[in-house]
Amino acid sequence: MSILYVSPHPDAFPSLRALIAARYGEAGEGPGWGGAHPRISLQPPPTSRTPFPPPRLPALEQGPGGLWVWGATAVAQLLWPAGLGGPGGSRAAVLVQQWVSYADTELIPAACGATLPALGLRSSAQDPQAALGALGRALSPLEEWLRLHTYLAGEAPTLADLAAVTALLLPFRYVLDPSARRIWGNVTRWFITCVQQAEFRAVLGEVVLYSGARPLSQQPGPEAPAPPKTATQLKKEAKKREKLEKFQQKQKTQQQQPPPAERSSVSAPNPRGIFMMCIPPPNVTGSLHLGHALTNAIQDSLTRWHRMRGETTLWNPGCDHAGIATQVVVEKKLWRERGLSRHQLGREAFLQEVWKWKEEKGDRIYHQLKKLGSSLDWNRACFTMDPKLSAAVTEAFVRLHEEGVIYRSTRLVNWSCTLNSAISDIEVDKKELTGRTLLSVPGYKEKVEFGVLVSFAYKVQGSDSDEEEVVVATTRIETMLGDVAVAVHPKDPRYQHLKGRSLTHPFLSRSLPVVFDDFVDMEFGTGAVKITPAHDQNDYEVGQRHRLEAISIMDSRGALINVPPPFLGLPRFEARKAVLAALKERGLFRGVEDNPMVVPLCNRSKDVVEPLLRPQWYVRCGEMAQAASAAVTRGDLRILPEAHQRTWHAWMDNIRDWCISRQLWWGHRIPAYFITVSDPAVPPGEDPDGRYWVSGRSEAEAREKAAKEFGVSPDKISLQQDEDVLDTWFSSGLFPFSIFGWPNQSEDLTVFYPGTLLETGHDILFFWVARMVMLGLKLTGKLPFREVYLHAIVRDAHGRKMSKSLGNVIDPLDVIHGVSLQGLHDQLLSSNLDPSEVEKAKEGQKADFPAGIPECGTDALRFGLCAYTSQGRDINLDVNRILGYRHFCNKLWNATKFALRGLGKGFVPSPTSEPGDHESLVDRWIRSRLTEAVRLSNQGFQAYDFPAVTTAQYSFWLYELCDVYLECLKPVLNGVDQVVAECARQTLYTCLDVGLRLLSPFMPFVTEELFQRLPRRTLQAPPSLCITPYPEPSECSWKDPEAEAAMDLALSITRAVRSLRADYNLTRIRPDCFLEVADEATGALASAVSAYVQVLASAGVVAVLALGAPVPQGCAVALASDRCSVHLQLQGLVDPARELGKLQAKRSEAQRQAQRLRERRAASGYPSKVPLEVQEADRAKLQQTEAELRKVDEAIALFQKML
């Protein structure tokens, strides 16, 4: 057996790293090296078995006499479940390897250097402030990277995070106090997120962060704290905040309404085409949540893009009446304010109260959507209970009922005893239990036991022995009062002798036949299953096959009926206790055991859902589902991402008929009437008999149809309308065409139906999307839309489902405006959570948002949500990443402000964006990069690849326009050549104009505000950015490979110079730079970009050496490309002796590391026992170490020459 030897010291972070990796190996598919999970030993390895020299801890012995591996990096890599721990693909694995190397070579030395002296474990050779500064420099790359990333590689912890977190354990425990953690906010957030993971917590326990204090001058940080701000500065900042809030909240008329041309004549031909999309109607009771925010960010960006392309565009708003949710809200309000139930008030008066509530509160969700900048056509807002939509619902029901698609039947339904209504599958939450659990159930003072399996016996009738019995087990012991049979498998040898026999029910006068059915699992329990057809779906189907009676033992409130005393009238869970006690009293109880199970809960009432037999209205879905499935197979309907097509076909192929009855008052009352005929020749009907039901658009029409059906005069017909209402999803399924007045023909219906796109979350693919497709095809003969794009579901930064009880639910308005931790706590107090859940939620909020949620603004939230929207199933949303996009908004603002200053007050843009004849190299380059951004943006919108669009735009603005072009422009605008400067200004204006138009669909507020500050090319230019043409590749066709190649070289040289300056701490000096080239072409290119390198790299002289010319003495070297080396002059700028000492220590460590790797790879059994990916990692690590050694040797030789 393998053994992992670790140090018992609680701060031995290398051993902790190995232990956490082992935990991940246990949670995954086993350690990456393929062996079994190792045994943990806190004792040192026996000297008799250890190699020489003895290994450093942690050490892994791979079986007695097997291969030894030691050192935290190698051991953790072997124990981690997925090799390098990278999220798929070699590129990700390389990223993980780079961060692991950074942790080993940079973070650990800096962390130990800053921490160990503070603990008195090492006498520091350098002063403490220098050690803290070194730690700050090591943290800087982490802070920058984590500004836009939740983890170091991918969307879950990898070996990179493990290496870096354990390297920083000591500083976070003993050095980084609260003020330091505020400086390194992104690193702190990431560290806390990682150590909260289950695998980390299992090893580390609760990580207590350092709470001490030291002078701010001794804090590890990139710079000294700013002095206190003056009153003038504070006033200026307040004014800036006021302006920011003003433009973020400003709703320009053009942004809220489509352009007039779209409204004047929608049927006018438009060569650009038509784009129509309807909003997934939110509940009238709803308030904004991140699901709404994601949906609307995507839909609004698509709508704005199509509108800016000149298409006739309609994004239709609407709101759903939300039958159950709204009725519950108003019922609670009535009881709270007036002490009345709806039954005391009466149906008509109650509905008046609901409409009154709707008029007062029902448009709240619209106001919240407007705050998100949603450019819906608000004039077309509709409500599913509006007369127009209600008429469509009635028409659809009558047509489908007349065709036999809608029918009446008595079947099992999901029943909420608290709501006294059937509910749909989407309204059922499945609570998973691992064993015995006590749950609160509405209407019961004491908690009810679930998660146990109770076994009891039925005696065999007519047996020669009183002991012969059949033992069955159930999680719902009260339902045994409704048992009508016991089922066994036809091939089970234990029960063959019971064919034709019956069992005795201990409390009832009926016998229970033993039936033989293939559905029984012989291996589970005793192989015998009690059959209760009226209260279990599987039992109901068995009952249908064997013609068993279905006896209902519960009424609509959950009280027992059709049972003998003392059980009669008991609430179902009180009956559970009574039945169990009675079985024990009669000696039939055989045991109870824990049983993992799923308890169905009504998500509205939190009641346990009960399967009950009820007469209901159903939609026959078979043929409609086949047509919907065939539409996708033919390609008439595209579902994106395509992975969801498999789910679509699986649902359509296995669809069941749809129960559309709801026992509510609020909603579309079913237009069906029960018929009573005043004629002795016509026998009275019963509820389940569909012949005695008639539908009609009015009661008069229904009466005429009933009279015709029974051959009597209308005056002999009495009608009673069904009290129930239709499932909310029925009216929602008609939404794409009912909003245009169907069944009446209209201009809107002709032009905008079928729609272009349906965009929504994948969680309602069946409940809403499939039903829209089925009903659209059935009632109109057309698909309601041509494409369906399904976005991912938003989860928290840890991948957990958002839940109020976890405290991780995020209100988008809190992200927009910011909220303190106390503000988040206060929101919990106004919720419906139990006090215990409130405390748990507060702890979750404190862990995730220790300083509350910072103000991010609407644009940053929209852009961040779209950037997150990979075409997958889940989004792990980290608010700190949204904060990074707020900084991006600030960058846009400052860059545009600088650019406008550079353009000057008298600047007049040229009538077209075409370049002139005097553009510089960097002008041509930025136009080429802008062309690429335009291409990627349009391509991404067409493919619904929103991360590709946001990445292209973010990269252009931040890394190309701001970091490069604006810097290169500064000397040009201040220069004497006005012709070149004017060309640069025209190019800069084009970048601003096109760049803002590119961003506008995602960031409508800040881009509109900045666009209004730009001069216009022509007097006929549109007044608002949102109706300005979106940049097209045909408009921006300035691709310039030569300019890009030249600037790529300039940027490579710049990176090499910056790297050397950082290596030698030359932050405030402009050292000279010499470029050694391999050929004349590269030399010419380097000469052309030398001025740009000088600006971008903050270098002194940048000179290109002649071919074969010697390099000046005292230069450090770095490789810019395979054709160009960079030599940075260090002579006179650094202390050679000091640098030599550091390099000698670095070489010794690198030599030891290389030697260990060589010995490891030379060990016997290494090629056969070590996995290939680990061998490849070792090979790469050795190559990297040897390359570092060569670089160190070159630097040593350089400094020796300088002595």
Automatic annotation (TrEMBL):
CDD domains associated with the record: Anticodon_Ia_Val, ValRS_core
Catalytic activity field: tRNA(Val) + L-valine + ATP = L-valyl-tRNA(Val) + AMP + diphosphate
Region annotation Disordered: where it falls in the sequence: 215-269
Keyword annotations: Acetylation, Aminoacyl-tRNA synthetase, ATP-binding, Coiled coil, Ligase, Nucleotide-binding, Phosphoprotein, Protein biosynthesis
Pfam families: Anticodon_1, GST_C, tRNA-synt_1
Highest taxon of the lineage: Eukaryota
Bias kind Basic and acidic residues: ranges: 234-248
PROSITE patterns reported for this sequence: AA_TRNA_LIGASE_I, GST_CTER
Record-level Gene Ontology MF annotations: aminoacyl-tRNA deacylase activity; ATP binding; valine-tRNA ligase activity
GTP-binding as UniProt keyword: no
GO biological process, one term: valyl-tRNA aminoacylation
GO cellular component: cytosol
Domain GST C-terminal: 89-219
Enzyme kind, highest EC tier: ligase
Coiled coil: 1140-1202
The keyword Protein biosynthesis is annotated on this UniProt entry: yes
The EC number(s) this enzyme carries: 6.1.1.9
NCBIfam families in the cross-refs: PRK05729.1 (NF004349), valS (TIGR00422)
Oligomer status and interactors: Forms high-molecular-mass aggregates with elongation factor 1.
Similarity comment text for this entry: Belongs to the class-I aminoacyl-tRNA synthetase family.
Identification of the protein by name: Valine--tRNA ligase
Naturally occurring in which organism (per UniProt): Ailuropoda melanoleuca (Giant panda)
Organism placement in taxonomy: Eukaryota, Metazoa, Chordata, Craniata, Vertebrata
